[in-house]
Amino acid sequence: MANARRLIRGGVLVSLFLLGFSLCLAAYSYVRIVRLSYVEGEVYVERPGTESERGIANLPLVHDAVVETAEGVAEIEFESDAFARLAANSWLHLTELALRDTGGRVTTLTLERGTATFYADPRRDDSFLVLTPYFQASIPKRAEFRVDLTSNGGRVLVFDGEVSLDTRAGAMNLGKGRMFEWDQTSQEFLVARNPERDSWDQWNAERDHQVDASRHEAIPVHLSYGAYDLQRYGQWSSLVGFGPVWQPYVAIGWSPFVSGRWVWYPHFGWSWVSYEPWGWLPYHYGNWHYDPFWGWVWVPGFFDVWSHARTLWVYQSGWV
């Protein structure tokens, strides 16, 4: 992998070697698409085959991508409400973003530096693994945890559920409210209660509250990840012949595929990246429909297949 050379510490390299060996024994597909769901401040993304660029919300992320925060924070949203949130001065590699032949999701993330909070609720065939230079953390069931890394060591704080750790001191399970801390200089570890929550934990709690408030509102159809954005920035109605439709809160005369830009991905071509905060689901699932009375409305569709853009290109004195 192109970014593997940036993983400079031996513990990560050994873990990646074992991971690569296990991949040879399984049939994996790298068709999963997740999104950069929140950006604040200075954030950079390096996609496979591209140079580093400024990260923007709703940017599709694929296997082998890197998200790096400078003076900023970022959130990556996975399926089933899972997320990874990066504090300032952090570096995260999407080492494995794949599907097993059984349909299970394989999520392996490498945090090389900084602070990140992770949440996932894996299904039976799913795996969710975080690699670091000093230890690796996995969750068999629903859990939320935080990882802090410095040049002198690292720690894991469990806020909900249980985390399985593979450390240089051996394997162990860490329950809710417990912390594991590794000192690289002394090669010693400590297991204790979580310390008092700091400003980063408070920011995460506020972010959780924003997302949960939208999730608790009634949605007339079953939607994929990113559905909570629709509750905050638009309203649902019923349109004859179409059923439930969603309309964003926009100015008169607005139309889709105007506020945003096209981004090239080697594996699937040009993808539309909307600048609108709600611009994930409506541009990658379902279809837009223009009604003379209502204006533009979004009609939900099937959510098992992600589309790079719900458009058709037509040649009329040039491609439009």
Explain what the structure shows.
There is one protein chain. The protein contains 4 helices and 22 strands. It has helices at residues 10-24, 199-215, 227-233, 281-284; strands at residues 28-29, 34-46, 53-54, 59-61, 66-77, 83-86, 90-100, 105-120, 127-131, 135-138, 143-150, 153-160, 163-167, 170-174, 178-183, 188-193, 234-239, 243-248, 260-265, 269-274, 287-291, 295-299. It has a 16-stranded mixed β-sheet that branches. β7 and β8 form a beta hairpin. α2 packs across α3. The chain starts with 9 loop residues before the first helix and ends in a 21-residue tail after the last strand. The model is unreliable at 1-25 (pLDDT under 50).
Q: What is the count of β-strands? A: 22
Measured between the Cα atoms of the first and last residue, the distance is 36 Å
Task: Give the low-pLDDT segments.
Answer: 1-25
Topology pattern, helix = H, strand = E:
HEEEEEEEEEEEEEEEEHHEEEEHEE
Strand content: over 45%
Total number of helices: 4
Structural class from helices and strands? mainly beta
**What average pLDDT do the residues reach?**
87
Biggest β-sheet description: 16 strands, mixed
> What is Rg?
21 Å
Cα shape: elongated
Fraction of helical residues: 10-25%
Task: Give the helix/strand layout.
Layout (H helix, E strand, L loop, with lengths): L9 H15 L3 E2 L4 E13 L6 E2 L4 E3 L4 E12 L5 E4 L3 E11 L4 E16 L6 E5 L3 E4 L4 E8 L2 E8 L2 E5 L2 E5 L3 E6 L4 E6 L5 H17 L11 H7 E6 L3 E6 L11 E6 L3 E6 L6 H4 L2 E5 L3 E5 L21
Parallel strand pairs: 8-9
Antiparallel strand pairs: 1-7, 2-3, 2-4, 2-5, 5-6, 5-7, 6-8, 7-8, 8-11, 9-10, 10-13, 11-12, 12-15, 13-14, 15-16, 17-18, 19-20, 21-22
